[in-house]
Amino acid sequence: MLAVAALAGCTALDPAPLPPSIEADAMASLDYAMQEFMDQDALAVLAQVRWPGGEWSKAYGVRDLETKQPAQPGDRVPVASVTKTMTAVSVLKLVDDGLIALDDPVNGLLESFGAGLKPPGPITVRQLLDHTSGMPSYGDALFRSVDDVVSASNQRLTPLQGLKIASTLPWDERTVGLFHYSDSNYLALGLILERFRGKGYPQILRDDIINPLGLTHTTIDQELSDAPDLITGYITIRGKRVTGSPTLEQLGSPSHGVVSTMSDINDFMAALFGGWLISANALAQMQTAVIGPFALGMFKWSPDCSGAPRFFARGGFLDFRTIALSSADGRYQATMTLAPAPLPSPQENPDMQDERDLMSSQILSALMEAQDLLCR
Predict the structure, then answer these.
(1) Percentages helix, strand, coil for the chain, rounded to the nearest 5?
(2) Where does the chain show beta strands of DSSP type E?
(3) CB-CB contact of 29 with 373 (8 Å)
(4) Counting Cβ atoms within 10 Å, is residue 198 exposed (0-12), middle (13-18) or buried (19+)?
(5) What is the largest CA-CA distance in the chain?
(6) Fewer beta carbons within 10 angstroms: which end of the chain, N or C?
(7) Which residues pair with 240 in a beta bridge?
(8) Nearest to 200 by CA among 89, 90, 85
């Protein structure tokens, strides 16, 4: 953990320790929000908050509904699309190394994937990163029915296979240049990484992020269903409870394959915004949102008390919601994961997607409120 340790040691500009009352108010606010989730029958809620000179962690609930072992703050969870932020970092490292440019067209590379994709025009690396390529999301074809939720989730899916599935959907010329969130973009980026690095995506992520930062509880391609420190999620299918993430479909995905802890995710966010992973120019590009709030691999959000924008990564499976929030200077991090009560899939009940999105918004609001109190 050399980089993270060094980053933590840069305290010359840190303010004096906060009065205990401010820390207590901030953590009481977040603790209240976590208890509110538990009052709504959540299975588990985990959070960790960091600020200059301080850290707070908490866990509520159970690891699984079979053993009912208490959840711990250091337990591992599938963090879903927080993976995209890590993938974006690896792509920007390609840019730093001069192997590719953000505004380079990738159509030739896409054709070489052999996935049958037919881009309606030039598509750039930047458009893949900020979801403005218009590429259809393979999940729209893979998870069409209630039965698909289980059957497709229990099959290994390579990025190339995912893009082949995406190629069965129309790639509308009118969507190019507009924000359209699509997991397919990050499958394509994973294949671009493999092309330029000459190795598999999981190893690239280990070499670029996991190993240099000492993220010892973070994995990308390991089956962890029996791991004792893993929080298990659940959904319901026709009223019957079904064990959810992590699934085989998620394993190794450049879009949503990472399993991690609140502490490891905060280490990653601190290193990213502290300037330890990519160049200052690449980080500035990463923080630029051209269309809507989505920048390159993360969301750009409302300013903190310093007036600088904040950034967050958002992960969402049917059985987990994760938000990782950071200040632009990397001095404040706050990450929370919620495993809600087992709910039907959107294929069975379309209203459930809005319910899950509301949970993510509530997590973000709770983290921002705590961070605001600490920042002041």
Answers:
(1) 40, 20, 45
(2) 44-51, 54-61, 77-78, 234-237, 240-243, 259-260, 299-303, 309-317, 320-327, 333-339, 343-344
(3) yes
(4) exposed
(5) 60
(6) C
(7) 237
(8) 90
Phi, psi of 219 (to 5 degrees): -130, 165
How many other CB atoms sit within 10 Å of the CB of residue 9? 8
Helices 183-197 and 159-166 cross at an angle (nearest 10°) of 140
Q: Look at residue 17 in the predicted model and tell me its pLDDT.
A: 66
Identify which of 355, 304, 342, 349 has the alpha carbon closest to the alpha carbon of residue 325. 304
User: In this structure, what are the phi and psi dihedrals at residue 133, rounded to the nearest 5 degrees?
Assistant: -75, -25
Contact 326, 283 (CB under 8 A): no
Q: Which residues contact 374 (CB under 8 A, 6 or more apart)?
A: 18, 22, 23, 26, 49, 51, 54, 332
Q: Is the pLDDT of residue 16 over 70?
A: no
pLDDT confidence of 5, banded at 50, 70, 90? very low
pTM comes to: 0.94
Backbone CA torsion sign across 116, 121, 124, 126: negative
The amino acid that residue 241 corresponds to is R
- Taking residues 192-200, what's their average pLDDT? 97
* Of the candidates 70, 38, 74, 36, the residue with the CA atom closest to the CA atom of residue 55: 74
Please give the structure tokens belonging to residue 264.
């490891």
DSSP secondary structure string for all residues of 85-105: HHHHHHHHHHHHTTS--TT-B
Query: Which class for 62: exposed (0-12), middle (13-18), buried (19 or more C-beta within 10 A)?
Result: middle
Dihedral sign (CA 332, 39, 361, 215) = positive
